[in-house]
Amino acid sequence: MKKHLIIALTLFLSSNLKAQENGSYLYANVGGGFHNLSYGLKNGNEQGRLGYSFLAGYGFNFSNHWGLQTGIGLQSFNPVATLNYLTVAPSVDADGTAYDYKTNYLNWKEKQQLLYLDLPLGLQYRFHLKDKIQILATAGMKVSIPLKTTYRSIGGEISTTGFYSQYNVELQDLPRHGFSNISERLTGPVSVRSSFSAFADLGAEYALLDQLGLYAGGYVDYGLNNVAKSAGKLVYQQNGIYNGVLASDQTHSARTIALGLKAGIVWHFGNNNKEAKPVQK
Question: What does pLDDT average to in each consecutive run of 10 residues of the chain (281 residues)?
Fold first, then answer.
């Protein structure tokens, strides 16, 4: 056991020394673009909106061109679902009379607001284009953990009526009997799973000082798993409970997708990882 511990410690110290020789760095960047929790709707459509990202972390280069990068960050998603459909459910009123309970979604819009904690790990390729400019390409995987997830309705109407076929009568606008027009703004929590996604970044770093650089580039993320926890419920139940789109039978196969631009700073310590150049005589 002692021998194994000494070997592991030696390998760790040698790898850390190698990282210092080739260049280690801290970085921070902010970005934004098209962020979407992409999901299908049975009776409607869904659209992504602008979202933001923030990431800070540590990287080290184990050669002149290759390195590893990790960090911790935040990423937001704000998809909007629009519903237009009618549901009909057989029901019985307080007097024991059968009727059809109808729920009509008229351009009903719901916005989900999701904030994730990102934990990425990437492999980076670094190419020295000029004395002060480097091209950076990074690809890897990340885990995104939901921090704050809510919904709110932002437009449209839900209309509920009762149709008595035996009398050919449809009752509406009777809130005391459960038949009403709902247009007020509804809010509540959304339950989603953690996201496992692949990501890729491409950008450039400009050296302001020996140890300080500016970074600008683009990023793309693609979720690999279904994050929706659909319970198969109705969006709006006859008892007046609103479950939301992501918890309903209307949603299936939701995944995170992001595409945008970002900018930030890089602080190098140890060797700044510049390629050695021949001495001119």
Answer: 42 42 85 93 91 95 92 96 93 88 95 96 92 94 96 94 91 85 91 96 92 95 92 87 91 92 91 44 38
Determine the Cα–Cα distance for residues 235 and 89; give it in Å rounded to an integer. Answer: 13
Q: pTM of the predicted model, to two decimals?
A: 0.82
Q: How far apart are CA 281 and CA 265, in angstroms?
A: 35
CB 72 within 8 A of CB 131: no
- Report how far residue 158's alpha carbon sits from residue 262's, in angstroms, rounded to the nearest whole number: 40
Kindly list the distances between the CA atom of residue 202 and the CA atoms of 15, 168, 205, in Å, as whole numbers in the listed order. 27, 65, 10
Architecture in CATH of 24-269: Beta Barrel (2.40)
Angle of CA points 159, 87, 254, to nearest 5°: 100
- Confirm if 151 and 190 have CB atoms less than 8 A apart: yes
**Is the separation of the CB atoms in 250 and 42 below 8 Å?**
yes
Entry field: residues in the chain:
281
| Cα separation, 106 vs 108, whole angstroms | 5
- Are 243 and 232 contacting, i.e. CB atoms less than 8 angstroms apart? no
Q: Is 15 helix (H, G, I), strand (E, B) or coil?
A: helix
Contact 30, 92 (CB under 8 A): no
65-95 as b/e, with b when 16 or more CB fall inside 10 Å? eebbbebebbbbbbbbbbbeeebeeeeeeee
